[in-house]
């Protein structure tokens, strides 16, 4: 079978051929643990991820009454590296370093993922160590204090990166009080106030068999993987004989957002202004996602894109300029970024608005549409050479999308996108309330003109 | 054949099997063009690089008397994307975007590389476009002015990144007036002063058949590649019938360095101090390079390394901490990096010194030595899955090392490194004059203690 497959939440076992002769399989164990694997013929390495559908957006007061600790999901992620009932932090680090493997974790707004990339022969080790971290971390009180210091340093590092600061503020501006608008890592005050017991409760409440999704891509045999995983989880103390259904997927569909904040200026004594301009976008499961991919490719992805050509190539106003369109279960964004000198920032902001309006009013050419298809096809094929990308794709399919679409199916959907579809979406985006965020040596007055040009003009080409 | 092969500079054709069943071949055309390819069975994509052994260190007054323009090599690199006699900048961008390829360039201290990663069927296009850029760029005067603006923005972006600033100052501090100590991109004054004629002369003087090295890895057939390359270069106007020898490799061996600058503080209103501490290291061809790899793995690479354990895991003093050991033809560095709060910076600096002294005095354990071998072997195997890494390895072999060592040979050399070798090298490094660079909200007085502890103490464990 070749194409898209709905991923049911009940007990299921399915398999099919996916892009590049890879083979995708999915099993749901009686305990609710889900396992997805994609075997890539000829591969000598493997990437494995342990996922749980809990991210920063889910932080709220605990069952026992602890107030919400913003950043506690990320704090917990760090603590899983700090030792289990049978392994010290150094033991964990040595396991992967001794074989030259990569080993890290990622806390996102809607999920947390612990992953490793190793040579094929080291997969059993990776399964064992990740299973131990996931099930049996101690969250030792002394390690908790040490790690508080490390996380405060991580927040400081991000705070020193003006592009990072602009990005956090952009999410807040567009999404308002929606939980997706919060920074993933919390802030220094919430991290200083974090208590070990609350993080422990968070761990116990959310790291159960029914929460766990394991995805593996590369040199993997599905049956062997499932057996190893069951052995590792049982060995680490989980009782997999207790039957449970996987946790329900997060409800999807657009949430009602507050009115976006039109203008945010963060003064910093930097050389450049980090500028972000955008609007609410599409949720991850929106059927117009392929249209958004095409729109974003034409508008702001790659050196031939309109933004790159107008802002950088023709006018030399910026070095880095692009657009982006992240999607989550109940909200999304469409944004445009540029880094430029203070004297150019209002010009760049106006150009960005003008270009989006132009796309909304005059649409795209047949050439652009054809090139976008080629761009998305080629870039996807190259990206899927990495088992990392395939492992992540499986996780996203399971946790967010509820279906797995292989490369052929994804490209078939892209090929169905018409110029009218792109123009209609551009018109919808251009009519939404804009938010502008500028971080740098500037003031609000510099952007009043760009913000007030908010009503789409009919004379922008 | 399996192992290391000297790369002669005369006319030569050789081939041998390298790691992972790949096959390396090298041809020197009568015109002096060198072509190295590594065919990776089963690969569906390919990475290609056009290299020239000219980097920022080579910038000097021109033959016609133009004064040296620091940053002109990087300026030239940008201009090669801005149009040829038969292709506009947009044509070049579209060529790669339309197939979803990656296309970029890199200016380094000792070379410049223009590269692309594409699907196998797009290799002829990549050869044609890169050959056109390399041979026939116009350096149009109007594009020159636009690009000056882009490069000034790129420098501003780097200037806003405190880790980048610290790194530039560290090279200056350790290498002094040596040309390798200069920043690659020049500075705003030199870029504002750059004139098109000087960059044009630089281009004409250094982009000749005898300078060109083409390296390709992935889905490539050597004979077909050579034929396509000859056709593309000839089509773009080069006369390949004129015989020439490749330019001689840059002389190697340690240069005499000035006395390093012990303390550099750049005041910035950032949350963290970006701290670098280090000494002159080994040149790229030093026979102790494998020892340095082992030393660096044990000391500061990975979560089980000594620096990570001492600075982050045990004390929570930093989020990012590691060591590094870049090597060039006639100089090298050994450095330690950490980002941390101002109140912790002198403690971290002292800890780094102490750890290096401890390595020098007490050496490494057999366990550490064994793990370092495993780490380097595994990490190399994973890295070589990317055709990018293999393409770069071929370029470095040709331009810097003068030999190609496959993975087996590289690991054989690593396995020969003894604990005594590592300790002896650590002792040599620890006895060299230290440079400390701190960028952030701090002052020189904060680091006097760390700098004055320069004489290795015997009581540091």
Automatic annotation (TrEMBL), chains A, B:
Peptidase M16 N-terminal domain segment(s): 34-185
InterPro entries from the UniProt entry: Metalloenz_LuxS/M16, MPP/UQCRC_Complex, Pept_M16_N, Peptidase_M16_C
Domain (Peptidase M16 C-terminal): residue spans on this chain: 196-375
GO molecular function (one): metal ion binding
Pfam families, per the entry: Peptidase_M16, Peptidase_M16_C
PANTHER family hit by this protein: METALLOPROTEASE, MITOCHONDRIAL-PROCESSING PEPTIDASE SUBUNIT ALPHA
Family: Belongs to the peptidase M16 family.
Name of the protein in its database record: Insulinase family protein
Organism per entry: Agromyces albus
